[in-house]
Amino acid sequence: MLYISLRQYEYVCAIGHHGGLSAAAQHMNVSQPALSNALTRVETHLGYPLFSRRRGAAMTLTPQGRKFIDQADDLLKRAALIEGAKQQDIGTTRLRLGCFVDLAPFLLAKALHAVRDAVPDVAVTHGIDSFEGLIDGLIDGQFDIVLTYDLGMDAGFTRLDLFDSSPRALVHPDHPLARSGQVTLADLSKHPLILSKEGLSAQHVLGLFQRNGFNPTVSCRAESLEILRSLAAHGEGVGISYANPPVDFTYDRVPLVSLPISDPDTAEAVVLARHGTGPADTIVASAEQALFKKMRSL
C-alpha cells in the first residue's frame, strides 16, 4: 500500500525547490495550508523532518530532506513518462551552487548562466549565505560548489582560485582621507572603522592591521554591504570592504568615495570551493571548468 501520494510528493518537492511555502504555493497555484498539510503528513509518515524550521528564518532542507527530494524528483519524472507527459521536467540530476552574500550581486547571475550552459540537462539551484553557512552547507551536502573568499576553509576543501580582490576604504567626500587617491593601513588605523558583522570578514580585516602593527578602533559592525556603505557615507567611520559597487552614491543617495588600500599584502582570493580533496564527478567538474572560464574573463 502507498501511504504517500504523488500529489504529496509533488507538493513537498515544490517547497524544497522554491525555498518555502509562500513561493511554492504561488508556483503551484494552490493554498499554503494545502502545502503545509501535505508536508506534515509526509513528515509524520516518515518519522523525521524534511525541513528545518526556525522562527524568523527561511525553511531549509535537512540532509534527509535533500535525499527525499532527489528521490521524489526521480519518481515524479518516471510517473510523468508513464503518463506520456510532453512537458519538460527537471532532471534527476541536480547541482547546488552557493555564493557568499557580498559576492552574489556581482557574480551569481553570471555564474548561473555559465553553469546552465555547461550542463544544460542538470537542474541548477542556488543559495546565498555567510562564510560559515557556506562551509557548513558544503559539509552537509546543501551545496556542491560555492563562490566565496578563501577564508575559513581547511585542507579538507578543494579550492580553485578565480581572481584576487583588493579592499577599499569608503568615506564621505568631506572626510580627511577623501582626497588622498589611495590610502594605507597606517592611514586608516588613525580613524574609527566600520566592519562587516560577518565574523570571519571582520577577523580577516583586523588581522591585516594587526600583522602590520596597528590596533584600530572599530566604531560599529554592519549587517550588510549597503548598510556599511551608508554608515560610512553618513560619517560613522571608515568602511572597509572587498566588494565595491561601481556607484558613487548609497541607496539614500548620499555621496561616497571609494579609495584603494595600497598595502601589498591585503588582496584576498575569490575561489570556487567544494568539500573533499578527491576528483570531482563529471557534472561538478564541467561546472567548475565553466565557472573558471567565466570568472577569469570578468
Q: What can you tell me about this protein's structure?
A:
By secondary structure, the protein is of the alpha/beta class. It has three domains: 1-92, Arc Repressor Mutant, subunit A; 94-164 and 267-298, 3-Layer(aba) Sandwich (D-Maltodextrin-Binding Protein, domain 2); 167-266, Periplasmic binding protein-like II (D-Maltodextrin-Binding Protein, domain 2), CATH 3.40.190.10. It has ten helices and twelve strands. The protein has helices spanning 6-18, 21-28, 32-46, 63-82, 104-118, 131-140, 185-188, 199-211, 225-233, 282-296, and strands spanning 51-52, 60-61, 94-100, 123-129, 145-149, 157-165, 168-171, 193-196, 218-222, 238-241, 257-260, 268-275. It has a five-stranded mixed sheet. A five-stranded mixed sheet has the order 9-8-10-7-11, with helices on both faces. Helix 1 (6-18) packs across helix 3 (32-46) and helix 1 (6-18) packs across helix 4. It is elongated and about 70 Å long. The chain starts with 5 loop residues before the first helix and ends with a helix. The model is unreliable at 85-92 (pLDDT under 50).
Descriptive key words:
alpha/beta, about 20% strand, 10 helices, 3 domains, about 300 residues, five-stranded mixed β-sheet, single chain, D-Maltodextrin-Binding Protein, domain 2, Arc Repressor Mutant, subunit A
